[in-house]
């Protein structure tokens, strides 16, 4: 049995009575699988149920689940991947867009075979599956997803004569124009909400950055005709409200602006509705959800899919146990349990019915089928840290010509994606 990293925060033994902190038979014939999960990803009740169920199904395995903080997790995971493996994790939950930075250098197990043969890779949500790949191999297995939807005021829609949520971009603009009157904002959309812009760009067939062939150079792509059309739609929509053009959706928090009562729509994950109701309980029963509309009514618009993948470090000494944990967590039984418990989107399109009956989760699941992720390069984190996309958006919304500003932003993205220029 592996030694424990006492410095890490472990789920309370009183809650996870079967988490394997003590071997059940003195260590004879049993193995402990160490699992790092992120704070807030799963409730203690879910983890207790899962641990008891997993250990009952795998009498030779004990689970050691250790809860991690998001702050500083990148450095902690990288250190664990580089260690000798005796004290490190066997399974790690990582953000879906983080997989390439951990896979680079050969420090993760290649899970392509198991994903194709046993785990239903073709049914996975693309926004989780695609960023879990590196160099055409699958290193990250989708666990759960969350994505943006439109949160709206049912009463304001009714007052404006909008009888049902729009299903196309054209309908959305028409409805928002009707809502943007009498002191109400049709939509509150901050000028630097680049995740929302990304969805509009993807809908047009554009990209934030593109790669020239397998293993080729990544270059910024905001200046393509497709990406420019996405920015043009963002500009039209953003103008139907009073969102600041030089700030993102957290400055100020858009849920707080929505709670003030004079905003008809925001684009956010459904969970933000709870923040709204905490600030303004009078809105209870007046809030609804619908997927971000697409260019046609037959499918919702593209959205950035956030969420988590599960990976196995190359230095694990419990590979079979690690694969068993991933198979269970990502399998239908426990994945649907997690989705219902936490109001997530399950990892497979075929499991969307697991969240039926909950309006926000249903809207999120519908959008997740069109989910995408940021470019699958380990250097994308440098782009987000510098974020020339935000500056580009602000300049366009202040009246600058889009194409030359998009060219400047694309050039900066190219520089940031090429480590040889930094």
CA radius of gyration: 23 Å
Q: In one word, what is the shape?
A: globular
The secondary-structure class comes to alpha+beta
Which percent range describes the beta-strand content? 15-25%
Number of strands: 14
Share in helix:
25-40%
pLDDT averaged residue by residue:
90
Cα separation of the termini: 44 Å
Contiguous uncertain segments of 5+ residues: 1-27
Number of helix segments? 17
The largest sheet is:
7 strands, mixed
Keywords:
single chain; three-stranded antiparallel beta sheet; alpha+beta; 14 strands; seven-stranded mixed beta sheet; disordered N terminus; 15% strand; 38% helix; 422 residues
Describe the structure.
By secondary structure, this protein is α+β, with helices and mostly antiparallel strands. Helix content is 38%, strand content 15%. The strands form four sheets. Strands 1, 2, 3, 4, 7, 13 and 14 form a seven-stranded mixed sheet that branches. Helix 8 crosses helix 9 (225-238) and helix 16 runs antiparallel to helix 17 (402-417). The longest helix has 16 residues, at 402-417.
Produce the secondary structure layout.
Layout: E1 9-10, E2 31-38, H1 44-57, E3 61-68, H2 73-82, E4 91-95, H3 99-103, H4 112-117, H5 126-129, E5 133-134, E6 137-138, E7 141-147, E8 149-153, H6 154-159, H7 169-179, H8 194-203, E9 209-211, E10 218-220, H9 225-238, H10 254-259, E11 265-268, H11 272-279, E12 287-290, E13 303-311, H12 319-329, H13 332-342, H14 359-368, E14 371-372, H15 380-386, H16 388-397, H17 402-417
Parallel strand pairs: 2-3, 2-4, 13-14
Antiparallel strand pairs: 1-3, 4-13, 5-6, 7-13, 8-11, 8-12, 9-10
Helix pairs in contact: 8-9, 16-17
């Amino acid at each position: 049995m592996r030694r424990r990293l006492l410095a890490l925060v472990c789920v309370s033994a009183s809650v996870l009575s079967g988490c394997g902190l003590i071997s059940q038979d003195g260590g004879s014939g049993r193995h402990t699988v160490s699992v790092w999960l992120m704070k807030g990803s799963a409730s203690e009740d879910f983890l207790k149920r899962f641990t008891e169920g997993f250990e009952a199904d795998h009498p030779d395995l004990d689970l050691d689940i250790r809860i991690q903080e998001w702050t500083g997790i990148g450095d902690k995971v990288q250190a664990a991947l580089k260690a000798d493996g005796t004290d490190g994790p066997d399974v790690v939950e990582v953000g879906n867009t983080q997989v390439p930075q951990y896979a680079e250098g050969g420090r993760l197990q290649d899970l392509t075979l198991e994903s194709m043969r046993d785990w239903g890779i073709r049914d996975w949500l693309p926004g989780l599956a695609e960023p879990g790949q590196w160099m055409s191999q699958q290193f990250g297995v989708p666990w759960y997803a969350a994505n943006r939807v439109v949160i709206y005021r049912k009463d304001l829609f009714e007052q404006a004569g909008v009888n049902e949520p729009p299903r196309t971009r054209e309908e959305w603009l028409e409805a928002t124009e009707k809502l943007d009157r009498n002191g109400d904002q049709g939509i509150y959309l901050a000028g630097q909400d680049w995740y929302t812009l990304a969805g509009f760009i993807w809908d047009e067939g554009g990209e934030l950055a593109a790669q020239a062939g397998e293993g080729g150079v990544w270059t910024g792509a905001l200046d393509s005709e497709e990406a420019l059309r996405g920015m043009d739609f963002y500009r039209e929509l953003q103008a139907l409200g009073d969102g600041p053009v030089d700030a993102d959706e957290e400055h100020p928090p858009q849920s707080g602006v929505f709670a003030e009562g004079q905003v008809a729509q925001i684009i956010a994950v459904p969970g933000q509705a709870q923040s709204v109701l905490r600030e303004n309980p009078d809105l209870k029963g007046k809030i609804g959800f619908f997927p971000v509309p697409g260019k046609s009514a037959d499918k919702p618009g593209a959205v950035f899919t956030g969420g988590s993948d599960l990976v196995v470090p190359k230095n694990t000494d419990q590979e079979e146990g690690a694969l068993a944990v991933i198979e269970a967590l990502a399998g239908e039984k426990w994945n649907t349990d997690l989705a219902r418990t936490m109001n997530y989107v399950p990892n497979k399109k075929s499991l969307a019915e697991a969240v039926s009956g909950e309006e926000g989760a249903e809207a999120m699941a519908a959008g997740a089928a069109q989910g995408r992720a940021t470019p699958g390069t380990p250097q994308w984190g440098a782009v987000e840290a510098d974020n020339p996309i935000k500056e580009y958006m602000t300049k366009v919304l202040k009246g600058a010509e889009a194409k030359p500003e998009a060219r400047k932003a694309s050039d900066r993205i190219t520089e940031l994606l090429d480590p040889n220029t930094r």
